[in-house]
Design a protein that fits this description.
Elements lengths: L14 E4 L2 E4 L26 E9 L2 E8 L8 E7 L6 E8 L10 E9 L2 E8 L10 E7 L7 E2 L19 E4 L5 E5 L6 E5 L16 E2 L7 E8 L2 E8 L8 E7 L8 E6 L6 E11 L6 E9 L9 E7 L14 E3 L9 E4 L3 E4 L2 E14 L6 E23 L9 E8 L3 E8 L2 E8 L8 E8 L2 E6 L7 E4 L7 E20 L2
Antiparallel strand pairs: 1-2, 3-4, 4-5, 5-6, 7-8, 8-9, 9-10, 11-12, 12-13, 13-14, 15-16, 16-17, 17-18, 19-20, 20-21, 22-33, 23-25, 24-25, 25-33, 26-27, 26-30, 26-33, 27-28, 28-29, 30-31, 31-32
Length: 501
């Protein structure tokens, strides 16, 4: 069953539609896991590499993500996919569709849209970025017998090869309604259309009035439409702003009909200057048999200036009682359960994600930082000093990172096996700000929390109600978050950073 199918029976699974949601009738040996997270708990990005425009489907108990390979345009000559049964551990499937399989795709292909019907797996894609009707290109469709392909051109030509109602034929999304009717939503250049797909999924149908292309453009629409259904209502999402800029974002509308009208309700996903920029071109998945929903999207790290340097992320999507969507919060979490440390950049020392922890060898000031820029926040992590006479802990409001004992500008709070708690600031030299004592045995794990609001900085260890250290210092107001060791080996787990409430 695909993420975009809310009432259609799927291979190996049986579901009952109840108020637009899915209720499982009978267990299946391939039933999808029930991941109930607030975000990618093992960290965003959840896969390695530069990717964009993710679309997601659920096939036989596995979640499949199909993204654009985010390279300079004419280098986007193939599509990869990623699969997972738990949204944590992902398997890469390389080159499931290549330009060589699509003879008319003379340039690039991007924005894949997956769906399954009658045992066949379809992948719709945009190719060639046509600028007028005299050019060859548009929206194509490939088909395979398995989710991982290989996919082959289904019709030997574009399915949609011309502009209609001003919509450039790109950025397609396919949705099968509860009555079995399939629709495609697509369009660039600020215009969106919907078309019917015939049961063969490779030809266009007509509406009751005899038309083939219906314009459904909502206010502020730019590109990237996405359709899903919940509670009998049709949700259309789309991207606004320029895809290379920081204002790229996602808005949505709700309608009683798959063909609209769609009136904009609100912006639901936008950049967070503390976490990432350029967030957009999304898809949505409902965990089968639950009311758990996730939004998948791409975003650009804060420190990146190359427009193609985009990464894949997902976060939980929550609905209000009236069916409207709450604003998405780009949470920062990492429990290292996926065995990698994507998003972390190291400066000195030896670092490895293993056994569900981020492990640091003993060094003098080795650190690993996330590309964040928090000012006021709560920062938590489980810290386990394992050997050595120094300390291990959290770096925050850090800039100018480099190697060396105090090779950064920012703050550090740490604990050591000798029973000490320390807080200080660095700027190529160390300035202590506070110390405390408590029992800390080598190899014991402690919950370390730092809160920073303006000049007020507090450090908590285990007891998260009473700070061990509380100081006032306004030397540094914002910067990156990270972890650090000084003359000790340590491991870190369950990292979580949230803006101050």
């Amino acid at each position: 069953m695909t993420a975009k199918t809310t009432g259609l029976a799927a291979k190996c699974c049986a579901f009952l539609l109840t108020g637009g949601l899915l209720t499982m009738l009978a267990p299946s040996p391939a039933a999808a896991a029930v991941p109930e997270y607030t975000t990618a708990e093992a960290g965003n990005p959840f896969v390695d590499g530069w990717y964009a425009d993710p679309d997601i489907a659920v096939y036989d108990g596995a979640y499949w993500v199909f993204p654009t390979t985010s390279k300079p345009y004419d280098q986007q000559t193939h599509l990869d996919a990623f699969s997972s049964t738990d949204l944590v551990h992902w398997t890469k499937h390389s080159e499931i569709l290549t330009k060589s399989s699509i003879p008319w795709a003379e340039r690039a292909m991007w924005a894949p849209a997956p769906i399954e019907r009658d045992g066949k797996y379809y992948l719709y894609f945009a190719a060639n970025d046509i600028q007028n009707d005299s050019q060859l290109g548009g929206i194509g469709v490939a088909v395979a017998d398995r989710p991982e392909g290989p996919y082959e051109d289904a019709i030997g030509r574009p399915l949609i090869s011309a502009f209609h109602n001003g919509a450039q034929p790109i950025d397609q999304d396919v949705f099968i309604d509860d009555d079995g009717q399939a629709y495609m939503y697509y369009g660039g250049w600020g215009h969106a259309n919907v078309v019917k797909l015939n049961p063969d999924m490779t030809s266009l149908g007509t509406f009751a009035d005899g038309s083939t292309f219906k314009e459904i453009t909502p206010a502020d629409y730019v590109e990237g439409p996405q359709m899903f259904k919940k509670g009998g209502k049709y949700y259309l999402m789309w991207s606004e702003g320029g895809w290379t800029g920081p204002d790229y974002s996602v808005s949505y509308a709700i309608s009683d009909s798959p063909t609209g009208p769609f009136e904009k309700i609100d912006k639901v996903l936008a950049q967070d200057p503390a976490v990432a920029k350029g967030s957009g071109h999304n898809s949505v998945v409902n965990v089968p048999g639950t009311d758990i929903w996730y939004i998948f999207y791409h975003r650009r790290p804060l420190g990146e200036t190359d427009g193609n340097h985009r990464q894949l992320a997902y976060d939980r999507m929550y609905f209000r009682p009236d069916g409207t969507i709450r604003r998405i919060e780009m949470k920062v979490r990492d429990n290292f359960a996926d065995g990698n440390a994507l998003g972390w950049k190291t400066y000195g020392g030896s670092w490895a994600a293993a056994g569900g922890r981020y492990r640091a060898g003993r060094s003098l000031g080795g650190k690993a930082l996330l590309d964040t820029d928090f000012a006021d926040f709560t920062y938590d992590a489980d810290v386990t000093p394992t050997s050595g006479g120094g300390d291990a802990g959290l770096v925050f409001r850090a800039t100018r990172p480099g190697t060396g004992v105090d090779g950064y500008s920012g703050y550090y709070a740490g604990i050591g096996p000798g029973g000490k708690v320390v807080l200080g600031r660095a700027n190529d030299s160390w300035t202590p700000l506070g110390t405390a004592r408590m029992p800390i045995a080598p190899g014991s794990t402690h919950r370390l929390r730092v809160t920073a609001v303006g000049p007020s900085i507090k450090v908590y260890v285990d007891d998260l109600l009473t700070p061990k250290i509380s100081v006032t210092d306004d030397t540094y107001r914002s910067g990156a978050n990270g972890v650090r060791v000084f003359d000790t080996a340590a491991s870190f787990d369950n990292v979580a950073i949230s803006p101050a409430q």
